[in-house]
Each structure stands twice: as C-alpha cells, then as structure tokens.
C-alpha cells in the first residue's frame, strides 16, 4: 500500500483517510490479543497520517518521533513514501529531519529515493551556500548506485564553488562517491588535485582526508602543495591537522634523506646518546658524511612544533609521532613534555599515550627518564593503565635509578590488586635480568616474597625466580634449598610445578634435598594437580638418571601411579618416560641418549618487553595500539638513500603577498580575521586593481584644530603654531579595495591614516580619545608611544559608519594636546562587492522595485562608452562587484552595504546616442540617491 | 573514519545508534559486551578492541559507554578525542551527560551527531558553531516553540564556520560586558607512610567565562609567566605572541571555555598544604583493626583549607567501621567498602581526628596491605604555585568590560600511602 501511495497521490490520500478512520476506534479499545502487533502497527500508521496532514507542526512532530525511532535503532522504513514527500518542505527543521531519514533509508528504498533527487539538484543551485552544501551532503550520502553520474557532476561543480564551505563538503563527498563506486577513481583524483590547490584552511583538512582515502599513493599530487600545507597547518581546524600531519609524515619519509646519523641503528644510537658524553656523539657525526637537512624538511618540523601546545590530544600525539619518525635524534626530546602532559587527560587517552610511550621508551630511555615519577602508579588507576605504567617504569630502569624504582615496586607488590602485584613481580624479574648489578638484590627480594601470604604473589615469585635462576644457575643452590623448604606451604600449582622443575634441573647441585622432595611427592602424588604431576614425573626421571641408587624404587612407584592416572597426558608421559629411562629388551637406541635428552642444557627464557617489536608500526596508529596490521594501514617507508628531486616542490607562481604575515601565521595575524568576503573578493576584483588606485578614498578629511583653544594661555603663540603645523598633515592613503571591511569586524570600514609629525619636537602617546556621535564604533589603533619630528607612521583603524555618510568625529590626542578629526566617507565606500550571477541579479532586482528603485537617464561622456571604461568609472565611485552580463549594452554591478548588508544593485543600460539609463535598486533610498548623483557625475564627465 | 556510534548504558542496553556510513548491525557490540564482562569494572574495559571485521573504540563517561565502530586504520586518539567532544557537547547543551537526558532529547542529540560528523569525518565540533545551527533547548524556547511552531534549527550558515575564528559567533550582544577568569590549580601528590613526598606536581587550568559584545581582542598577562613550564591552549590563543612575549592574546569564544592548561615547572618545590598522621593496623588475632587519622595544616600560605575530605578504599575483608570523628562526619559504604570522612573546614587550633576500630571478617587472613588515603581539599583565593595574573586588556571594542580573576587550589590526585 505504501508504495502505491506515492505513485498515486489520490490513492495515498484515500489510504490516509482510511487509516484515520481506522485509528479512531482502535485507539479506544484495542483487543488485548493483538495488543503487541496492533499498537506498533497503529503507531506508524498515525505517524503516516500526521505526515500527510496539512499542518506543519503535525508533520514536524511526526518527523521527530520517526527520527527518535531511527536513533533507537527501530525500523521505520515503511514510512519512506510518506516522508519523502516532505523533502521539498519550506520549514528548515522539517527539511533537516527528512534529510536525516533519507540518508538512513535511501539505500533500502532506492526507487523511491530517486524521487527526491530533483529537489537536491535544484538546491545545489541555491544562492545560499549553506543550502548548496547541505544538499550536496545529503545527495552524496544517499548510497544509490544509479545516481553516481549525478553525484559526480555535483561534486565537480561544488569543487569550483566560490564558497569554501561548499568546497569542503565536496571533498567529503569525494570519499562517499569513491566508496559507492570505486570505478570513478580517475575522475575523482582530478577533483582532488584541483581541491588540493585550494588555499582555504577550511578545505585543506577535508581534501587531504579524501586524498588519503582515494589515492594515498599518488604522492606526486602533494609536491606542489607541500609548502602551502605546511604553512596553512596552524590554521586548519584540529581534526584536519591530524590528517594532514599523518599524510605529511608519510610524504616526508619518501622525499627526504634520513636525518639520523649514518650507519647507526636505532638502538646503538640510543645507547650512545644516553650513556656516553655528547662530545663523542658529535665526533661521530662529524666523521660521517655531513648531513644537510632539506629546507622543506625543516619547514615541516618547524611548523608542526607549535601544535604540541594544542588542546586536542590527537593533534599532540600526531606531532609527537611526526617528530619521532622524522626529526633528528636530538630534537625528538621536545615532544616528551607534551606527551607527559596528556597523561592528565581522560583514561582512554592515557591508555593510548602510555602505549606509545612504552614503545618509545624501549628505544630511548633518556627521553622519559626525567619524568619517571609521572609514571608512578596510583591505587585508583585502571588495571590496563597500571600495567602500562609498570611496563614503562621497567623500560626506564637503569643503574642509576634502579633503587628508586625497586623501592616503588615494593609498594606495588603489596597492592590489593593481586593481578597487578603479580605483574610487578614480573617487572622486578625483568629489571634483575637487564641490570646485572641488582640481580642479587632482586633475587633476595623475591625470595622474601615467597613467604608472602598471598598465593598469587608467591606463585609469581617462584616462576620469576625460576627464570632468573635459569639465566645464572651457578651460585644459587641456596635459593633452591630455601624454596624446597617452603615447598610444603606453597599451594599454587604453577609455583609447585616450577619448584619441582628447578629441583630436577639442578638436582646435582642439591643432591641431598631432591630425593627427599621426591619422597614427599610420592606420598601426595594422587592429590596434586595435573601440571604438578607432570613435573613430579619429570623430577623422578631426572633423579633416576643421576642418582638411581637412592631413587630407583621411588621412581618406579611414581611411574606406576602415573600409569593409572585419570589424565591421559600423564599416562602418556609416564609411558614415554618409562620407555626412555628404564632399560629393557624392547627399548631401542633412545635409552642410551636418555640422559642427553632429559638433562640437555636449556636456553634461558628471555625476559623482554611486550612492546619490543611494536615499533614496526607507525606510532599513534590503530595498528600500533592493537599490535597487528589494521585494514588500510599504510607502511611508513624507509628513508630513501638519495633524496628525490627537490625542485618538484617549487611553486612557480609566487603570489604577491598581500597580507604581510600570511605566509607563516595566517590566523595569528589580524588580516586573516577577514570573514568570508575575502574568498569571494580575491577572485573578483584582482583584475581591476588599477582603477582602485584612483578611487578617491573617503572624502577629504577636515581637521580643525581645536587644540589651540584647549592648550591654555601658557603656550606661547609660536609653540601653538608649530603644534598646529605638526599637527600632522593627516593624510589618507588610498585604501585597497580588496579589503573593504576592517579586519576585526565586517561592519567596519577600514581607514588607513598616515600621521606625519611636521613639528620640531616629538609627539608622544598618540591615541584616539572622545568620539561623536556617542555610539560611534571605532576600532582604534594601538597607542603610538612616540613620533619623532618629520617621521610618519601609518596606522589603520576601523570605523562603523552605520551605512550613513555622516562624518565620524573623534579626538586625536597626544600627551599634551588633542585635536578633533572628522572623517566623512563617500557613499561608494560604504559598500562592499557582492558576487552574483546575472539570473540572481535579475531576481534580486525584481524584489527591489517601486520605492526601492531610483533611476535617471544620463548622457554619457564619449570617453566612457566602452564597457571597460564604464566599469572603471563605476568602480572608482563605488566599491561594488561586476556582474557578468550576457548583453553588450547592459552593465550590472552588485554590492552590499557594510553595516547592514543590504543589497545595492546598479545597472546601466546603454541607449542610442550616448544616452543611458542608470538604475539603482536598494532598500537604502537615501544612499541610492547619493550614489546616483556620484555615478552620474563620474559617467558624464570625461 | 568513524563508521557508527552506539551509546550503551550501565546495564548493557544500546539506547542510541547513529551510522554515518552504511548501517552496521548492533550485533557488533557483542564483542564489546564480552570484554565488558571480562573486565568486571567498567573502567577496566580496554578502550580499543579488535573484532574480525571491525575495530571498536570506546570511552566510558558518566556511567555511559560511547562505542564507535571503525573499519580502517585511524589514529585511535582521534576517535577518543572526538567521542569525548561529543560527551562534552551533550553536557554543554543539556547540563549533564546521562542516559535520561539523552533519551529526553534524543532528536536533538541525533541532529547534533549528524552535524558533528560528515561521512565519519568531524565537520563542526565547536560548541559555538553548533549552537547556531541547532539551538540548545531552554524552557522559554520550548514554550515559544510549542506556541508558535517555530523550531530549534537555525536557518543560516553559522558565521563562525566560515571565518578563521570558528569558535566565536558573530553579533554577540550583552548589556553587561564581563570577563571572568578562574585560575584553578591542582596538586597531584603521592606521600609515603612517613609523610615524605614521593611525587608532587602542580597542574593548572584557566577557565574563562567571557560575555563580551562584538569582537573583543583580549590580552592577558602574568606577573610571573616563567613559572609555567608546559602549556596547552584553546585554539584561540595566538601562539606566536606567547612565544615572544609570554602573554595570552586571543579573541575569546563566547561563554565558558578553557583558555589554557599548564604545568608548573618541576624545579619549584611543591608546597603540600596539609600533613596527615595516620596509623591503620589490622591485628593478627581477632577480627578487628584500628584506625587513627589526624590531619593538620602545613603550608597553606595563611589561607583556610576547606572542603577537606578523606576517602579510603578498604580491603574487602573489612566488614564495618566503628569510629569517632572529632570534626565532620564519616560514612562507610558496606558494599563498595569505601570510607569517606567529610571534614569541612580545617581548624588549625583543633586538629580533626578520626579514630576507632574496624571489624574484619572472621576466618579471613588479615589484609596484607593498608589502604591508601585519597585527600580532597580546596583553598580559596590562592594559587599554590604563586602564579598571578597581572592585567587584562581589551582591544577592538570600546566599552569598559567588568573584569575578574579568581584563584583556587584543589587537591588533584592526592594520595597518602600507608
């Protein structure tokens, strides 16, 4: 029914009516038997009814409930036809909810979803960038293969959009399309290539993400954009930073040569830097071929460094891994502090950071040793955090700090968390093997722990002692004896088994005790755990071989017990041992070798970090975290032996630097606070920059010297005269039109003022004082401390003229004096250009008729008849943008007022014999008439 | 990147799911539930899990699990940081981040999630930008909405999204212009049995509440910036100015935000404001133990220590506590075995003391290890590191804002081992 409802409107209406009728009686008394099904069914039914009603509020309510259902994971796909009808709704909230629904269910209902496509296609052409972007977002999220060509087209168009926000959305759409249809790869790469050239910080992160997803191997696309990306990095939003940094890390590893000293492997180098004096390292470096870092390599390192101060832990981590993988050894240390800082963050963050530190600390102890105390465990830490901290502390242990660490470990051993205590014992074992000086101390400590009450602790100690003894069995028969004494009190099977194994292995060192232990074991054999039984059999066998006189009977007794054990492993083992050691007719050649088989020297177990081989993964990655290769993981390549051509990164066209600071810290300078008009503007007005020079700036400013009157009678007349003169011939420099608005607020007009001291003494503390009218909004320049005679200084200030040509008055104060200044703007300077198409222009013009239209027929000066000349003249009067025109005799210009953003449309229609119709459409009628006057003047005069 | 998100409550119910790419069945969460069971405590669930086809990255916050499903390689911190940002945003919008609140506002939360990620990549995470797109609910607005049928969804593109100042919305207006800064320092310390400091450091944060009209440009400077060893900033702070002049220069976001975090250089000795004399012992014979704790002021710079509180996680064997406190009250939670002694203000003349006996389970060996004490305290009007804000200047706007700086010292992870 639901499908037919959509195809046939009438049917749908009928269905709705039906449903409505149905729901009324049932809601009052639903049959108990059908309660479960009918309520569910009815509920969606009444949602459908609400969606088909005429009331916006009902529809909205219904959509909200549906989205609620989606959020809870309940199925509401049968409502698709009813919902999709509302896709063209005017109500923004309703529309958004419908979008949400579409994205979720379009894949399941592909045919019906196609019905909504035309709405999005229309919205893609909307003048509002927000609507364009969200239409593209939804269109690309509809995973319906049939619309791939439409998506492709939309993406291409959006990638060339004037709004960076739309371009950003198109970068996201690339990934979606790629996952929907990988065949589009080539075309998508073209779009990516284009977007990579984008200079907007908004786009950078998203396009690099698309690059990583679609064509991570096309490293050649990055070359030309490398420097730009490095420079933009500080200003990109934090998530984009993470992606860009990780991409640049990979890039750098393929393009630059290793900054690490030649021939020295990671570990060796570490030992050197850590244990030896610096001078030696230097010597080594000088001996090697001198290494000169590529300036681009340096650029990357320099520009990422400030990001270590980011509040976003992911950014800090990505910079840390970049330094780890790319920076010269001695520079890596700067990331330490920041990584340690992250340990203050959430538990999950700690976990990841500790994992990475663990890997780093294996190779470079020196990096984290000063911060050792930050890794001390607190009783409130989660178990996985504790274990990682322990791991790091163990890695950091060396001769100098081992006593501190062992003291700390002693506290942990007593911890109530027994699993953690056991882990600590293992850590002690590792310290003992790594640092030979403390092996004995550790062993003694562990032996003491054998009398601990807790079984886990004892068991773990035994196991660790066993491993330690294996590494150096010579002098430790005392400990083995001690353990034999404790044997009766130890109940943990693993520990008992370990002791028995030790006895057997070193039975020749404790010839008196071992047979006695075997005797005891023979008594309790049946009651032991399997693992212990196996070791008893082993012990018996070994003793039989070394000391058969004393143990022959015991061994046979034990073998007999084993023969009838319930566990087949033990029965097997018994059989095997019997054949091996007891000589009889059937036993073959093996018997001769029994001793060599059982008592072969066994390699000591190596106690090493679990993070030992983690460095095969790039730090900070998922693969590193789970210690196995994740899907889509990209190996970090080794440094190339010879650097590839460096010149590929050169960018031929060097942009004239308009904002002096834009190259390094775009955001951190004021200029880039420019809001969106910057993006529009640069594209549009760069062509007519000549005309700007002539544009008469804000009208002449009158400076009346009120200073005289206020300066008081003491001032000699000569002084006040000079004062008057020096009083600066405040002159206004022509202001660049490309930046019509002031940097701090888009509501302000920027005014550049040159102050020249024409007096004979220096002026101090020049600043702006009182202003009128009282509400006048001025962004003052910073106080000028001192202006020497004949010196001049250029400052810029912002004034909010509130779209009126009323003069702005203010006091310009020096330390001793003040002068009033009045600035009156020309009406044309209260505008800023607006970009629109011819169609939009006509549409907007259509809305501004009647009272909002002012027009006049003028006679054009002959010199002004060419379209170039017209543009020049108009642009010299008003700061407006040219609207491309399809007709030769029509010239259109569009702008907005700076403060209120009201549209100002200027159109000029050329008639015969140099007469023309000049029309201005705007809500600001006063402005319109003033502008008309100015334009008329400009166009009629040659 | 992030494929799907599941919100899971304490008892293991999935009460919200959001997919940014195609739909992933919620059965993927079973792997998580398995790990959850194994971990016993929710805090102990490993944040990164591997399943045959997906990777699960989760955070635990406010008794809720935020579980995200990942399909390909991604930096785990990226996901974790984002999930925390989601939780922060929910908290910011609704005042708290709990199951009840999310369920009550499920549509708004879902819309927020929709805006925050596009195809799994973060789109808008700045609270200021989000608030322009989806307005947070207020009582007044919900009344107005029901009456007029208007909505919570903004219809214009947030200005912040486009500019290079994405954290501040345009057109902010206040009748009272004010800027408050709270310098909050936390002492992290581990003291050993004898009261010697094993480890101590000071971490500080400057929380700001700025309600200023227009686009103010603020500069905050310190008397002694050299104290600050390691810092991290809100994106609004101009790093170059900090590098060169050691001042914080920024255009603030509107409302509450964290301006900076800092760490005080470790060369400075950390003043420990209180000392603790304690003896906890369990007797070998008989099912009991003794506890005696006295707390006194040490280096408080003449300020009063307030909100003193001692928390002790007792060993499992301790059944009950029979204590007397000379000041404040104590509670012992029988199930979680947590003893909390709420002292309040610390009086230097009459030191607070808590003593009495602990009854332990019969037949169980006496606890091996004494529990450590976690100390909480507050000292108003003091930054224990000595950091001082010297001035705050405003450029770019012409009104005179009301400015205020407050100092506070707290105990962070302050632990006394026994």
Automatic annotation (TrEMBL), chain A:
Region described as Disordered: 1-31, 682-744
Protein name, per record: AP-3 complex subunit beta
Residue stretches making up the AP-3 complex subunit beta C-terminal domain: 689-806
Family the entry assigns: Belongs to the adaptor complexes large subunit family.
Compositionally biased intervals (Low complexity): 10-22, 704-719
Membrane topology: Peripheral membrane protein
GO biological process terms, semicolon-separated: intracellular protein transport; vesicle-mediated transport
Keywords (A to Z) from UniProt: Cytoplasmic vesicle, Golgi apparatus, Membrane, Phosphoprotein, Protein transport, Transport
Gene3D superfamilies: Leucine-rich Repeat Variant
Gene that encodes it: ap3b1a
Organism: Dicentrarchus labrax
Any Gene Ontology CC annotation: clathrin-coated vesicle membrane
InterPro entries xref list: AP3_beta, AP3B1/2_C, AP3B_C, AP_beta, ARM-like, ARM-type_fold, B-adaptin_app_sub_C, Clathrin/coatomer_adapt-like_N
Residues of the Beta-adaptin appendage C-terminal subdomain domain: 830-940
Automatic annotation (TrEMBL), chain B:
UniProt GO BP: intracellular protein transport; vesicle-mediated transport
CDD domains named in the record: AP3_Mu_N (cd14837)
Domain MHD, residue spans: 176-417
Signal peptide: none
Record InterPro entries: Adaptor_comp_med_subunit, AP2_Mu_C_sf, AP_mu_sigma_su, Clathrin_mu, Clathrin_mu_CS, Longin-like_dom_sf, MHD
Keywords from the UniProt entry: Cytoplasmic vesicle, Golgi apparatus, Membrane, Protein transport, Transport
Localization terms from the record: Golgi apparatus; Cytoplasmic vesicle membrane
Family: Belongs to the adaptor complexes medium subunit family.
Protein's job: Part of the AP-3 complex, an adaptor-related complex which is not clathrin-associated. The complex is associated with the Golgi region as well as more peripheral structures. It facilitates the budding of vesicles from the Golgi membrane and may be directly involved in trafficking to lysosomes.
Protein name as it appears in the record: AP-3 complex subunit mu-1
Natural source organism: Dicentrarchus labrax
Taxonomic lineage: Eukaryota, Metazoa, Chordata, Craniata, Vertebrata
């Amino acid at each position: 029914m639901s499908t037919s409802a959509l195809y046939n409107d009438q049917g749908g209406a009928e269905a709705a009516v039906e449903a409505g009728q149905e729901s009324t009686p049932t809601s009052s008394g639903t049959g108990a038997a059908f309660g479960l099904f009918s309520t569910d069914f009815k509920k969606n039914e009444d949602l459908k009814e609400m969606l088909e009603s005429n009331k916006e509020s009902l529809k909205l309510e219904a959509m909200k409930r549906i989205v609620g259902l989606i959020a809870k994971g309940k199925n509401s796909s049968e409502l698709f036809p009813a919902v999709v009808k509302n896709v063209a709704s005017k109500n923004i909230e309703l529309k958004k909810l419908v979008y949400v629904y579409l994205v979720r269910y379009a894949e399941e209902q592909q045919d019906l979803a196609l019905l909504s496509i035309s709405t999005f296609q229309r919205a893609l052409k909307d003048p509002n960038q927000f609507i364009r972007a969200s239409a593209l977002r939804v269109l690309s999220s509809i995973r319906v293969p049939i619309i791939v060509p439409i998506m492709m087209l939309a993406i291409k168009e959006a990638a060339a959009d004037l709004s960076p926000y739309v371009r950003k959305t198109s970068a996201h759409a690339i990934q979606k399309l790629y996952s929907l249809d990988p065949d589009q790869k080539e075309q998508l790469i073209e779009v990516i290539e284009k977007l990579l050239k984008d200079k907007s910080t908004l786009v950078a992160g998203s396009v690099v993400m698309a690059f990583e997803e679609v064509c991570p191997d096309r490293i050649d696309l990055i070359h030309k954009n490398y420097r730009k990306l490095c420079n933009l990095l500080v200003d990109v939003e934090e998530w984009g930073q993470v992606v860009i940094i990780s991409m640049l890390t990979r890039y750098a590893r393929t393009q630059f040569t290793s900054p690490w000293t030649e021939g020295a492997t990671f570990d060796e180098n570490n030992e050197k830097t850590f244990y030896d004096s610096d001078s030696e390292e230097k010597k080594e470096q000088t001996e090697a071929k001198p290494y000169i870092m590529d300036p681009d390599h340096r650029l990357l390192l320099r520009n990422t460094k400030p990001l270590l101060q980011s509040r976003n832990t992911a950014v800090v981590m990505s910079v840390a891994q970049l330094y780890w993988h790319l920076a010269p050894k001695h520079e890596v240390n700067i990331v330490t502090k920041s990584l340690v800082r992250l340990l203050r963050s959430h538990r999950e963050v700690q976990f990841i950071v500790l994992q990475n530190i663990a890997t780093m600390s294996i190779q470079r102890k020196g990096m984290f040793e000063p911060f050792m105390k930050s890794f001390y465990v607190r009783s409130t830490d989660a178990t996985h955090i504790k274990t990682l901290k322990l791991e790091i502390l163990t890695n950091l242990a060396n001769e100098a700090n081992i006593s501190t660490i062992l003291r700390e470990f002693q506290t942990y051993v007593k911890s109530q968390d027994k699993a953690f205590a056991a882990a600590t014992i293992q850590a002690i074992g590792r310290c003992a093997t790594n640092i030979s000086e403390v092996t004995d101390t550790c062993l003694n400590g562990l032996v003491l722990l054998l009398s601990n009450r807790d079984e886990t602790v004892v068991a773990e100690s035994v196991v660790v002692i066993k491993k330690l003894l294996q590494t150096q069995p010579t002098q430790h028969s005392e400990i083995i004896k001690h353990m034999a004494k404790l044997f009766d009190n130890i109940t943990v099977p693993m520990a008992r088994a370990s002791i028995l194994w030790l006895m057997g292995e070193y039975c020749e060192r404790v010839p008196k005790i071992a047979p006695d232990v075997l005797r005891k074991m023979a008594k309790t054999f049946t009651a032991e755990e399997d693992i212990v039984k196996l070791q008893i059999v082993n012990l018996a066998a070994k003793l039989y071989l070394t000391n058969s006189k004393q143990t022959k009977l015991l061994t046979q007794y034990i073998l007999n017990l084993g023969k009838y054990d319930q566990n087949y492993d033990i029965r097997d083992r018994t059989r095997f041992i019997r054949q091996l050691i007891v000589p009889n007719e059937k036993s073959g050649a093996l018997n001769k070798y029994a001793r060599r088989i059982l008592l072969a020297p066994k390699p000591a177990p190596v106690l090493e970090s679990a993070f030992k081989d983690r460095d095969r993964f790039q730090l900070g990655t998922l693969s590193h975290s789970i210690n196995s290769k994740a899907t889509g993981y990209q190996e970090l390549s080794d440094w190339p032996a010879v650097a590839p051509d460096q010149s590929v990164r050169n960018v031929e066209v060097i942009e004239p630097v308009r904002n002096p600071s834009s190259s390094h810290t775009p955001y951190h300078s004021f200029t880039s606070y420019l809001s969106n008009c910057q993006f529009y503007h640069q594209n549009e007005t760069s062509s007519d920059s000549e005309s700007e020079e002539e544009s008469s700036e804000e009208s002449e400013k009158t400076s009346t010297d009120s200073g005289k009157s206020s300066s008081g009678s003491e001032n000699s007349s000569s002084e006040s005269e000079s004062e008057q003169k020096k009083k600066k011939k405040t002159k206004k420099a022509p202001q660049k039109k490309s930046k019509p608005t002031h940097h701090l607020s888009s509501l302000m007009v920027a005014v550049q003022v040159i102050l020249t001291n024409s007096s004979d003494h220096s002026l101090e503390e020049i600043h702006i004082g009182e202003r009128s009218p009282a509400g006048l909004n001025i962004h003052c320049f910073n106080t000028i401390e001192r202006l020497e005679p004949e010196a001049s200084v250029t400052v810029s200030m912002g004034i909010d003229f509130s779209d009126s040509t009323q003069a702005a008055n203010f006091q310009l104060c020096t330390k001793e004096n003040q002068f009033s200044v009045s600035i009156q703007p020309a009406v044309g300077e209260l505008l800023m250009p607006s970009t629109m198409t011819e169609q939009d222009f006509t549409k907007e013009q259509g809305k501004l008729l009647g009272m909002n239209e002012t027009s006049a027929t003028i006679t054009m000066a002959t010199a002004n008849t060419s379209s170039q000349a017209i543009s020049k003249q108009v642009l010299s009067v008003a700061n407006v943008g040219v609207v491309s025109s399809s007709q030769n005799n029509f010239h259109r210009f569009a702008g907005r007022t700076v403060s209120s953003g009201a549209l100002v449309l200027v159109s000029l229609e050329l008639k015969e014999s140099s007469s023309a119709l000049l029309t201005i459409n705007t809500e600001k009628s006063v402005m319109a008439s003033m502008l008309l006057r100015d334009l008329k003047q400009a166009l009629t005069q040659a | 990147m992030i494929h799907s998100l599941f919100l899971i409550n304490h008892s293991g119910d999935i009460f919200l799911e959001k997919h940014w790419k195609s739909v992933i069945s919620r059965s993927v969460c079973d792997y998580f539930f398995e790990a959850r069971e194994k971990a016993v405590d929710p805090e102990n669930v490993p944040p990164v899990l591997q399943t045959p086809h997906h990777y699960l990255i989760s955070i635990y916050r406010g008794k809720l699990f935020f579980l995200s499903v990942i399909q390909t390689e991604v930096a785990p911190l990226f996901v974790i940081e984002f999930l925390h940002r989601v939780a922060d945003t929910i908290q910011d919008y609704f005042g708290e981040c709990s199951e009840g609140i999310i369920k009550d506002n499920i549509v708004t939360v879902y819309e927020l999630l929709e805006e925050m990620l596009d195809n799994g990549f973060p789109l808008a995470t700045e609270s200021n930008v989000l608030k322009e797109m989806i307005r947070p609910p207020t009582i007044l607005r919900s009344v107005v909405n029901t009456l007029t049928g208007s909505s919570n969804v903004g219809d214009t593109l947030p200005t912040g999204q486009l500019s290079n100042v994405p954290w501040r919305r345009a057109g902010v207006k206040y009748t009272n212009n004010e800027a408050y800064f709270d310098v909050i320092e936390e002492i992290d310390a581990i003291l050993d049995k004898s009261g010697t400091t094993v480890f101590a450091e000071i971490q500080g944060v400057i929380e700001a509440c700025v309600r200023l009209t227009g686009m103010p440009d603020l500069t905050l400077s310190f008397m002694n910036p050299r104290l600050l060893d390691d810092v991290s900033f809100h994106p609004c702070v101009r790093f170059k100015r900090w590098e060169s002049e050691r001042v914080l220069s920024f255009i603030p976001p509107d409302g509450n935000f964290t301006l900076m975090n800092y760490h005080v250089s470790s060369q400075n000795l950390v003043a420990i404001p209180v000392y603790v004399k304690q003896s906890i012992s369990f007797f070998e014979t008989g099912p009991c133990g003794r506890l005696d704790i006295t707390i006194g002021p040490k280096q408080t710079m003449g300020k009063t220590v307030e909100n003193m509180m001692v928390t002790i996680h007792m060993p499992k064997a301790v059944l009950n506590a029979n204590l007397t406190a000379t000041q404040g009250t104590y509670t012992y939670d029988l199930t979680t075995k947590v003893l909390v002694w709420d002292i309040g203000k610390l009086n230097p003349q009459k030191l607070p003391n808590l003593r009495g006996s602990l009854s332990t389970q019969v037949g169980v060996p006496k606890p091996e290890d004494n529990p450590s004490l976690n100390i909480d305290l507050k000292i108003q009007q003091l930054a224990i590191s000595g950091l001082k804000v010297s001035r705050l200047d405003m450029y770019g706007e012409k009104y005179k804002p009301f400015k205020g700086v407050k100092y506070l010292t707290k105990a962070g992870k302050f632990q006394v081992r026994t």
